[in-house]
Design goal:
Helices cover about 70% and strands about 0% of the residues. It is mainly α.
Length: about 260
């Protein structure tokens, strides 16, 4: 593990995927900067920028940025080695296969986690410029809790998409359909089917207005749904991540990867 982590980190820092991941991380920041330019118009409608942070963190980060970055990086944990035909060279080394999965997953989580953290802090700071340092500190607790939930979601999504990359030939399309089809639609359905999504448990932990009342896009469209218990959601996400990581490792042990 000690040698694998810097090896995969060095390779990923040279990859074009890092450029795309960094660019995607800047998208919410650019959005908050744009909101600063239209702030006079928003104030005419009694919309304060700092009040938009819960909606931006929920919709832009949790429902858009996090799934995209997770699909982009998660499926590449194994599938990238298959497409580049470098997997046989990794597996013939006297290194346990599970260490390859764990090291590469740790690298991707670390890099993407840094991107998400920096992006969220910048967006929060830009939206709170008019409030000063005291205003920034007032909601800092929710900022840190939201960041913690995003990082927990990153672990769950990365391991899930990693398992897709280990078992499917074309995991990217399946991952996108899951992230923006199944996750974004089923989590709002009545009944128990929502418990088969990852995002439902993230909803239960995320510190936004959804925890106290119904809300929607910019708080204008009411959406009502029941939430799971916080601790149940936390341990469910941890268990999911462990299962998905085990499935990814299992794929290396039992699946035959044919190189073209």
């Amino acid at each position: 593990m000690g040698a694998l982590f810097p090896f995969f980190l060095k390779n990923w820092l040279r990859s074009r995927k890092l450029f795309w991941a960094f660019g995607l991380g800047l998208f919410p920041v650019a959005l908050t900067i744009l909101l600063q330019f239209v702030n006079p118009i928003l104030e005419e409608h009694e919309i304060m920028l700092y009040r938009l942070y819960p909606q931006i963190s929920f919709f832009v980060y949790l429902h858009l940025l996090l799934p995209i970055l997770s699909v982009l990086t998660g499926v590449a944990i194994i599938n990238e080695e298959v497409e580049d035909q470098t997997l046989p060279y990794l597996l013939v080394r006297p290194i346990p296969k599970w260490q390859v999965v764990l090291a590469k997953s740790a690298v991707y989580f670390s890099v993407v986690g840094i991107i998400v953290t920096g992006s969220l802090f910048l967006s929060y700071t830009i939206l709170n410029l008019q409030m000063g340092f005291e205003g920034w500190l007032e909601e800092a607790g929710k900022l840190l809790k939201g960041l913690g939930v995003l990082l927990l979601g990153l672990v769950a999504y990365l391991t899930f998409f990693g398992a897709l990359g280990a078992w499917l030939k074309k995991p990217v399309l399946t991952g996108l359909l899951f992230a923006f089809g199944w996750e974004n639609l089923v989590s709002y359905f009545p009944g128990n089917v929502k418990y088969l999504t990852i995002v439902h448990y993230l909803h239960s932990l995320f510190p936004t207005f959804f925890r106290t009342k119904a809300g929607g896009i910019l708080g204008l469209i009411p959406i009502k749904f029941s939430l799971a218990n916080g601790w149940v959601s936390f341990f469910t996400l941890v268990l999911m991540s462990a299962v998905f990581l085990a499935l990814t490792c299992l794929g290396l042990y039992v699946k035959e990867y044919k190189m073209e």
